[in-house]
Amino acid sequence: MWKKPIEILHAVAKIIKSAGTVLGFLAMVYVGTANLLSNTEFGQTVLSYFDPLINPTRLTQNYVYYEIGENGILTNEGRLAPVNQVTSKPYHQIGESDIFQANSTVRVRNAPTGSADKIGVIALGECVKVVSAEFPLSEEQLGNAISGGWLNIEKVDC
């Protein structure tokens, strides 16, 4: 029994669409991992695949540390200031989509720990948007600071 020509065309189209999706994904991974940027501050190579400005659909997370000292201002460890606010926000008040600006170079890590790989930097004056703030530090971890934790961020225009 012969199928109708339209049924054959639909079947062929489905096969081509499936193959195209797989090939497109593989090409994205290859190009993303092969396209390297040089990070001169740390003397290391950074995969542009992880840079949200170059590839906003990255498969990793970008974390920065945020911390407020006993005096209520940012510490040398947490160098991101809330945009359009006079004072710093305690960590527990940070929400998704909050915008912060770097007041000096800020290291970006691939996991919410100080020992995680550095995958890039946020330069002085650059802005980031909070994707999530789900990793507060305990009082013991904070030491002399009053509030702090890791922010999952993406770069945005200021």
What does this structure look like?
Strand 1 and strand 2 (44-47) form a beta hairpin. The protein is α+β, with helices and mostly antiparallel strands and 158 residues long. It is built from two helices and nine strands; from the N terminus they run αββββββββαβ. Residues 23-50 and 52-59 have low confidence and may be disordered. It has helices at 5-34, 139-142, and strands at residues 36-39, 44-47, 63-68, 80-82, 99-102, 106-109, 118-122, 127-136, 147-156. The strands form three sheets. Strands 3-9-8-5-4 form a five-stranded antiparallel beta sheet, with no helix packed on it. The protein has a two-stranded antiparallel ribbon with strand order 1-2. Strands 6-7 form a two-stranded antiparallel ribbon.
List the helices and strands and how they pair.
Layout: H1 5-34, E1 36-39, E2 44-47, E3 63-68, E4 80-82, E5 99-102, E6 106-109, E7 118-122, E8 127-136, H2 139-142, E9 147-156
Antiparallel strand pairs: 1-2, 3-9, 4-5, 5-8, 6-7, 8-9
Key traits:
single chain, 158 residues, two-stranded antiparallel sheet, 2 helices, 22% helix
Radius of gyration (CA) equals 21 Å
Q: What value does the average pLDDT take?
A: 74
Give the strand order of the largest sheet, numbering strands 1, 2, ... along the chain.
3-9-8-5-4
State which percent range the strand residues make up.
Answer: 25-35%
Structure annotation, total helices: 2
Strand tally: 9
Order of helices and strands: HEEEEEEEEHE
Helix content: 10-25%
Give the end-to-end Cα distance, rounded to a whole number of Å: 64 Å
Write down the overall geometry: elongated
Uncertain segments? 23-50, 52-59
Largest sheet: 5 strands, antiparallel
Kindly name the structural category.
alpha+beta
